[in-house]
Amino acid sequence: MRPGRDPDPEYVRPLDRNNTRAIDRTGGTILHTSRTNPRKMTEARLPAFLDKAERARLAAADGVYDLTPIVLRNIASLGLDHLVTIGGDDTLSYSERLVSEGIPL
User: Does residue 59 form part of some domain?
Assistant: First the structure.
């Protein structure tokens, strides 16, 4: 969801046999992408909702932040049963981190 736009009721939706039936024959992506690695976020890319105290807790190195606690909260609040990750080295290495945190992939 982009800032300044009305919430899209279809932004988060359960996937089932009916709405994924033709997914393998559909071009592009239905899942969208963020092109980020949550454990390697720079200060300039931090979400605006993070206050100074939370930014300090998430600081991992000089100018780098690990947003994994936020990712874990979001996964829990969405009630996800499993997460399917598709991507390159960053995606797969971060997937390994999520598995170590107990997220079923």
Answer: yes
pLDDT in tens, 12-47: 778 889 988 888 887 666 666 677 899 999 999 999
Examine residue 17 and state whether it is found in any structural domain, yes or no. Answer: no
**Residue 3 belongs to some domain of the structure:** no
Tell me which residue of 63, 26, 70 sits closest to 49, measured CA to CA.
Answer: 70
What is the count of structural domains for the chain? 1
Exposure of 30 in the CB half-sphere (CA atoms within 13 A): 14
The pTM score is 0.77
